[in-house]
Amino acid sequence: MRHILVFDTETTADTVQNLNFGAFRIYELDYEGQILTLIEEGIFYQDDLPERDPDGYATLREYAESHTAPIDHRILSISIADRKLHFLSRSEFVEHYLWRRAYRYRMGVVGFNLPFDISRIAVDVGAARGFYDGGFSFKLWEDNDHWRPRLRVKHLDSKKSFIGWGTTPEHKWRGLFIDCRTLSFGLTSTPHSLESACRAFGVEGKNPVTEHGIITPEYIDYCREDVAATARLFDAMLREFYKHPIPKLAHQVYSPATLAKGYFEAMGITPHMGRSSVPDDVLGYTMSTFFGGRAEARIRRVHVPVTVLDFTSMYPTVGHLMGLWDLITSADIQAEEIDLDLSNVDVDYCLNPDNWPNFVGIAQVMPDKDVLPVRAKYGPNETPNIGINYFSATEPFWYAIPDVIASTLLTGKAPKVLKAFRFRSAGRAPSLQPVSLLGRIEVSPEEDFFKYAVEERQRVKNSDPQLAALLKTVVNSGSYGIFAQVNRKKFSQPTPGKLLHRSGVTQRISTVKEIPGEYCYPPLATMPTSGARLMLALMERIVLDSGGYYAFMDTDSCAVTGTDPDAIIERFDALNPYDRDLVPHMLKREFDGYAYVISAKRYVLMDAAGNIVKSSEHGLGYLMAPEKGRHKAWIERLWRAVLDDEEPEWGTFPALMPHSVSSWNLYNAFRTLNEKKPYPQQMKPFNFMMIGQMDPMYRDPKGGLLIAPYEADSSKWGHVTWVDRNNPVKPIKRPPLVVFQDVIDDYAVHPEWKFEDLNGQPCIPPTRGILRRQWIHAPSATTVGKESNSLEGTELLDAEGIAPVLFGKTWDDWLPLIMPFETQCITDRIVSDRQMRRYRRGDAPKPNKMKSIIQACALYAWRDLRKEHADSILNLDPLHVLQTWHHIKSETPR
């Protein structure tokens, strides 16, 4: 790539954001791919602009004739006349620059938020297929006699998209597109606007503009400066990127994980999946041990004096203590079956760093009121969530060894371990070599990178903040993220593959698969998160033993109360692996003041005067700001309304969510509003839209999301036209929407479903005070996750061990036991009335349905018995529960 095209578009200020005009520049690059010389600049306009806005067109034309491009004619030996701005229509721009240069001569295309600009210069759009399935296929040129590729865009998230030309057997060029928004995120791990990215990379940004949509000389200057700023940013980022001695190209950088993988590759560290000696069935067991970070509220809706303690670089620290770098750099990883001895587990045992390398493994446990991570639907209509609760089950479960040790620490008794494996390295990988981070410091694979990176970051954070930021980015991704990466991919035809599963490995065929990332490897993914949960369990044990308690935990922090935080910090110094001159304490004292906690991740921190110091955005950040100004400002005002039980002046405004029209399904929902309109006048892909929430009292169970074109002025939100995404044929005006006061009222009492109050009652909206763990009883387990819905046939049933005979009984045996609960099953839609009549006649349900009915009936029976006969149902096997219920109720079936 020797040349790049940098362009930007400006649009109308209405909801359709039709193209008005744009600006572009052509740069020649040097042999390293860095910007050398500006060689062309121009302005292009929408084809219908002369008729639609003749004054604006005249302003553009006059501007182009009276301005020149800042080309250094001494270098290029061109005349002043040759430096004039090109003035082209959109059709001419895509013909000369997108087709002839970007496609035929393989010139790179650069922009900031490229998907939006591409959708502006298109003339039509369709649904993309294949690799870009779910995305858009843009037509850039009018009909012609020769084959022209369409430009395809698949949105991944707010920071990145896949962009490429359509291909045929004769035309394979996918193109080279670099979105500076994506590259800036990949290099800094921070989502940026163009302005903030320019600041981050130390280049001149763009000038502000007061009004959009009206073509003036000042507005044209603004657009040209946008292009120049994007080019300066791209140049600075390329210079930064090429300091990384990694075998990657700039257009391949989609996230910070790319840098981590690049450095691993440069060190000679190769992925373990597919080459390690760990059997597939053990990898399947290990997959089921993966849980996320621990987040919970334990003192609810009460102002509590707290000290927030934060762990230094939790995942890298745990990775170092457990010796995971030896596994990462090993020639092979092996699974060794062991007898797991938990007899010595106590606080001192866990505070001894010499013991942590022995925690790297998994264990099969028969849960019996052990404190373990449990993924379940804790509340009504809740999605599966993770709680650290007392857990009993009638079948064994696999857990990471740190979770088993944490349970021993918290309960004082060791779980019943049936089998255990420890992962160990088998020799150092050959051909490992040192690399130089940013060309400034050399890192050897012989040294534990986790420890080195944390210490070096502390050493340079003031003198070299750029290097410090890189160290943070690479070590966080390299210690955890890249090993847990799984990509979801859809195939046009069923594709054979293996399902790594809790019961082993199942062969399956599916059109949708979860493809492991390049460095994905279950043992290296589950150990950091389980080690972090052990750290928090150790914190809990020490705090409780000291007579204190905690208001909340959040992944790597804990808000303690009623105890001496300095004493806790000193206890954890025993595990501090770092140079004490650089990291004096592994635990940092982050905040002293007061906390008010509603539920997991929903809390606010205040000083002694009641001023908000930190307010959580969890459960709020998705909403459009109801007032102008900083986004954080209205979040703090909402929290103030919660704390003071007052209604803000914008409480009656609809609570709307902003969203980009980022998928074909969302775009297709606007087909009624777009019908019979030419593409420029349509709601287009990557326009912003608004999502409204229908008031539950008026919500149609069959309805979908209400969506509408974006409107920035909150005073007009009550007057926009909505469509139902699932039924977009008829526009809806003035629907009864959830308003901000509804959000505040619900947010203020959002339950912490994972726990119960001290009386053993579920945490419901009015609950206040200290919460305690529930006792979770699982008759059996089911598969959850993105992939579970696409498993087909009986493969999942076989993997789960489900058969027409469940728990030792056939359907005829179960039928009289569940009959008293059939009405509840029908009411809760476990089964339909018609199905139940058929099953009552003797037609056995399919295994999955049979299991669902039995589990539901056992749960109904258990809830009924729990009120007065809790001691009678210690064994939570479904058969035992139902038989106990019939015995106590004197309804023993014949």
The gist of it:
This protein has about 900 residues and is of the alpha+beta class.
- Proportion of strand residues: 25-35%
Q: Main β-sheet: number of strands, strand sense, barrel status? A: 7 strands, antiparallel
Which class of the domain at 3-242 in CATH terms? Alpha Beta
Strand order of the largest sheet: 11-24-25-13-26-27-28
Query: Counting H and I runs of at least 4 residues, what is the number of helices?
Result: 28
- Dominant shape: globular
InterPro entries: DNA/RNA_pol_sf, RNaseH-like_sf
Detailed description of the structure:
With 894 residues, this protein is of the alpha+beta class. Among the domains are: 240 residues, Nucleotidyltransferase, domain 5 (2-Layer Sandwich); 135 residues, no CATH class; 86 residues. It is built from 28 helices and 36 strands. A hairpin with a 3-residue loop joins strand 20 and strand 21. It is globular and about 90 Å long. The termini are far apart.
Helices, strands, pairings?
Blueprint: E1 3-11, E2 19-29, E3 35-45, H1 49-52, H2 54-66, H3 73-76, E4 86-89, H4 90-104, E5 108-111, H5 114-121, E6 124-127, E7 136-139, E8 151-157, E9 160-165, E10 177-179, H6 180-188, H7 194-200, H8 217-241, H9 256-267, H10 280-287, E11 295-297, E12 299-300, E13 304-311, H11 314-321, H12 324-328, E14 333-337, H13 347-350, E15 361-366, E16 368-376, E17 385-393, E18 397-400, H14 401-411, E19 416-425, E20 435-437, E21 441-443, H15 449-460, H16 465-479, E22 486-501, E23 504-516, H17 522-545, E24 549-554, E25 557-561, H18 565-572, E26 587-599, E27 602-606, E28 612-615, H19 631-644, E29 656-660, H20 664-668, H21 671-674, E30 688-692, E31 706-709, E32 721-724, E33 727-733, H22 740-748, E34 755-757, E35 769-773, E36 775-778, H23 795-800, H24 811-818, H25 822-827, H26 833-840, H27 847-866, H28 878-888
Parallel strand pairs: 1-5, 3-4, 5-10, 17-36
Antiparallel strand pairs: 1-2, 2-3, 6-7, 7-8, 8-9, 11-24, 12-35, 13-25, 13-26, 14-19, 15-18, 15-19, 16-17, 20-21, 22-23, 24-25, 26-27, 27-28, 29-30, 30-31, 31-32, 32-33, 34-35
Helix pairs in contact: 6-8, 6-9, 9-16, 11-15, 11-17, 14-17, 15-16, 19-22, 27-28
